[in-house]
């Protein structure tokens, strides 16, 4: 912009200041007008985010990306691709096309992963899904991004994953392509929270499960109706006490999950930034807890308060149990890390001082690749081709891959009890 036009536009801005609002101009009519406008705009925004209901696009993969997913070199992958017809798998070549450009859908890619070895761990007879709850009572630390990426990343490795959204805001539900406003109470955890005799009441979660746009990831959605559990759960506990019965109101989810645990390898639960009776159900159903911490400001103070409250609720549940509860692992993962900042480096040291061996090796950088703003809702795994620097993408992708690998390894070792060599990297050894 030339100096002349710049100064002209500046004077234009100065010439037309925003209208000064006279006091008393905004009343019920204006507020209702704004409310109607916002809801119409919300419909337009949703149409942009969700397209027609439930059709969030999945990524497509080229041969090199497929090779990476399968843990094969480019040449080994190519040799396998030449046998596609024999194996009954997609060769990725468009019908009738002469070019050698290959392209695979998410489903075809996962089929290839499974055909070339599949999940690194095969559950043995009687072994159950590992339930991992992602939580912290601070918002905006990346819980939902971590939970969603973990589910997608594990599915890309050939595992079967169930996700449960415990956040009434339904952010993970939205990330998985479902508009939380369209979710009915019976499609969430809520029926398990309601008392017997309530029209919604159920004791199992199976009926609430739906498939998602991501092959291998199912969902029990979250929506605002989850709030009612906060009222019903303690009420049921009080009623039981009055009748001289014992009722563990903090482990309703743990019980409801029992029947479906053999159908999945992992259950990933996303929680709201609060510790309540409802979210405590998510922590007590868990075999492992993953806690993202942003190395900044008052994070450590909040996290210490979190464990303080958590321990108190844990003790309450312990009194209602026959056997003591034990977790297979706890993982604190530094999230949204801006590692070039000296203050962040010093905070990371403090985090290691506070949490010692519970701090994971993985660290998630603050990155432009992860976005939930505007009309894009996605994780690193949603991207087929990053419109930005490849270095930026790779850095983010590798960090999330490391987290997925670490979670997989800790679960194999500490939950399924597999003996693993220390130097195993999580690749298909
Ligand atoms: N590693 C990251 N880099 C950049 N932005 C991130 C990262 N992780 C999360 N975010 C952004 O931070 C915001 C909060 O993330 P979210 O996962 O919703 O946090 P929480 O569930 O803890 O409230 C979102 O806008 C999300 O896109
Ligand atoms: Mg969240």
Assigned CATH superfamily of the largest domain: P-loop containing nucleotide triphosphate hydrolases
Helical region count? 15
Computed CA radius of gyration, to the nearest angstrom: 24 Å
Order of helices and strands: HHHHHHEHEHHEEHHEHEHEHH
Supply the CATH class of the largest domain: Alpha Beta
Net shape: globular
Helix content: 40-55%
Bound molecules: adenosine-5'-diphosphate, magnesium ion
Question: How many domains in all?
Answer: 2
Distance between the termini: 58 Å
Largest sheet: 7 strands, mixed
In the CATH hierarchy, the third-tier topology of the largest domain is known as Rossmann fold
Number of E strands: 7
Query: Unreliable segments (pLDDT under 50, ≥5 consecutive)?
Result: 1-13, 425-429
CATH architecture of the largest domain: 3-Layer(aba) Sandwich
The order of strands across the largest sheet is 3-4-2-5-1-6-7
pLDDT average, as an integer? Answer: 88
Helix/strand class = alpha/beta
Beta content comes to: 5-15%
Pfam families: AAA_31
InterPro entries: AAA_dom, DNA_Partitioning_ATPase, P-loop_NTPase
Domain AAA: 130-316
Protein name: AAA family ATPase
Q: Describe it for me?
A:
InterPro entries: AAA_dom, DNA_Partitioning_ATPase, P-loop_NTPase. Residues 130-316 form the AAA domain. Pfam families: AAA_31. This is AAA family ATPase. Residues 1-22 are annotated as: Disordered. The chain contains 15 helices and seven strands. The protein is of the alpha/beta class and 429 residues long. It folds into two domains: 63-115, no CATH class; 130-414, Rossmann fold (3-Layer(aba) Sandwich), CATH 3.40.50. A seven-stranded mixed β-sheet has the order 3-4-2-5-1-6-7, sandwiched between helices. α13 (299-319) links the parallel β6 (288-293) and β7. α3 packs across α4 and α7 (143-156) packs across α15. Residues 1-13 and 425-429 have low confidence and may be disordered.
């Amino acid at each position: 912009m030339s100096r002349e036009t710049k100064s002209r536009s500046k004077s234009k801005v100065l010439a037309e200041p925003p209208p000064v609002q006279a006091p008393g101009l905004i009343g019920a009519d204006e507020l209702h007008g704004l409310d109607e406008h916002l809801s119409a705009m919300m419909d337009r925004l949703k149409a942009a985010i969700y397209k027609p209901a439930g059709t969030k696009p999945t990524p497509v993969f080229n041969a090199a990306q497929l090779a990476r997913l399968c843990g094969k070199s480019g040449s080994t992958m190519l040799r396998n691709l030449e046998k596609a017809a024999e194996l009954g798998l997609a060769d990725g070549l468009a019908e009738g096309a002469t070019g050698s450009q290959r392209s695979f859908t998410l489903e075809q890619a996962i089929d290839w992963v499974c055909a070339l070895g599949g999940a690194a761990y095969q559950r043995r007879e009687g072994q159950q899904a590992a339930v991992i709850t992602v939580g912290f009572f601070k918002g905006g630390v990346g819980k939902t991004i971590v939970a969603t990426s973990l589910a997608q990343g594990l599915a890309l490795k050939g595992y079967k994953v169930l996700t449960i959204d415990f956040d009434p805001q339904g952010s993970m539900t939205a990330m998985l392509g479902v508009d939380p406003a369209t979710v009915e109470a019976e499609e969430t955890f809520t029926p398990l929270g309601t008392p017997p005799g309530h029209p919604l009441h159920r004791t199992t979660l199976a009926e609430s499960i739906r498939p998602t746009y991501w092959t291998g990831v199912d969902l029990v959605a979250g929506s605002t109706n989850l709030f009612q559990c906060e009222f019903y759960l303690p009420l049921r506990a009080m009623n039981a006490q009055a009748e001289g019965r014992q009722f563990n109101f903090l482990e309703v989810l743990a019980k409801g999950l029992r029947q479906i645990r053999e159908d999945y390898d992992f259950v990933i639960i996303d929680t709201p930034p609060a510790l309540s009776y409802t979210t405590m159900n998510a922590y007590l159903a868990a075999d492992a807890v993953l806690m993202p911490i942003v190395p900044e400001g008052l994070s450590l103070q909040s996290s210490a308060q979190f464990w303080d409250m958590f321990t108190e609720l844990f003790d309450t549940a312990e009194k209602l149990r026959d056997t003591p509860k034990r977790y297979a692992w706890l993982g604190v993962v530094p999230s949204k890390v801006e590692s070039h900042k000296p203050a962040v480096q010093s905070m990371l040291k403090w985090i290691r001082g506070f949490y010692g061996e519970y701090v994971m090796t993985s660290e998630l950088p603050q990155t432009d690749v992860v976005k939930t703003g505007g009309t894009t809702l996605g994780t690193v795994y949603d991207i087929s081709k990053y419109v930005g620097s490849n270095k930026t993408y790779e850095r983010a992708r590798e960090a999330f891959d490391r987290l997925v690998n670490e979670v997989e390894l800790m679960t194999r070792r500490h939950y399924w009890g597999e003996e693993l060599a220390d130097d195993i990297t999580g690749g298909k050894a």
